[in-house]
Amino acid sequence: MNAALSNPEWSKVESMAYDGFDERPFLVFWEITRACALACKHCRAEAQSHRHPDELTREESSRLIRQLAELKPPMLILTGGDPLMRTDALDLVREATAAGLHVGLSPSATARLMHADFAEIKAAGVERISLSLDGATRQTHDAFRGVSGTFDRTIAAVHRAHAADLSVQINTTLTRSNLREYEAFKNLMFELKPAMWSVFLLVPTGRAGIADLPDPQDIEHVFQDMASLVGRAPFAIKTTEGHHFRRVLIQRHGAGGRQRPGMRSPLGIRDGRGVMFISHTGVVSPSGFLPFDCGNVREEHPADIYRHHPLFISLRDNDALGGKCGRCEFRTVCGGSRARAYGVTGDPFAEDPACIYQPKLSGAVQV
């Protein structure tokens, strides 16, 4: 059995039917704090060592949870910074779970995590924990994270999560400097057997710059190899901000590629289109990598922002895409990274510079 099926509830959520991008996001990322003990080279949040004085209070956080329960996104991910830097993090998980939300947690591999009780994390309602491995060796990962010992703590955390029967997702950020480690990353995944390997294609925001982007041709080679693993590896595979992996899957596997474990449901999800990000101070953006201020949950209901803000509405429109993304027959299932387009060109509707594919001008692939 595929390891991704080891947690029936989370797998059920990931593959569930979806009733449309216009009404609600599929994924809500809530940055409950920006505080973190690490100093990662490409941190989106440019995390700091101390909590921000204007973070959402506990009362405001509880109200937000009630509002999100009304919105009913299939997945809520508590992230940061390091969410465990908030002492009430698991209380927020319990509240969200009691409100009917499916909750994931994305902690940093720090001493704080090593002191945590993984059975308690699961009992609080966390359905999946995501951990980052951005170097395939102790030396390269610790250099990326800016603190020694993070590689060993991450490996230990994976094993402790497995022991607590807590579903694990491993996130790997691909950059120009670590792309040469791809084979080693792959071997490590076969060793660790997470439920999901999520490969994040770098976006130039926060501490990451355009010079850190991998070459598009190299990305294509990696995606082709990843596509060959789908359905064969003892873990599911997906990409973050690497939406053209869906195009590679369909090209490789035909129509059936849309239903394979590497193709996250629903199709066409991207920044602002099925994705909503809420910052530690309540600012709502189309994603954490597309940091536009579209409103604040202190003043507006997140559902109203997602449904009615002009930027969200435009990002959900496949026909609003520019360049070759707007002409591409895969635009309804991919649409490119709006965050990377913005980070490189300043235009969130420009073509994704990380994709080498040239459209065939033959209409759109039907979802």
From TrEMBL:
GO terms for molecular function: 4 iron, 4 sulfur cluster binding; catalytic activity; metal ion binding. Pfam families: Radical_SAM (PF04055). Its cofactor is [4Fe-4S] cluster. SMART domains: Elp3. Residues 22-232 form the Radical SAM core domain. Keywords: 4Fe-4S, Iron, Iron-sulfur, Metal-binding, S-adenosyl-L-methionine. CDD domains: Radical_SAM, SPASM_MftC-like. InterPro entries: Aldolase_TIM, Elp3/MiaA/NifB-like_rSAM, PqqE-like, Radical_SAM_PqqE_MftC-like, rSAM, rSAM_sf. It comes from the Bacteria. This is Radical SAM protein with 4Fe4S-binding SPASM domain. It comes from Prosthecobacter vanneervenii.
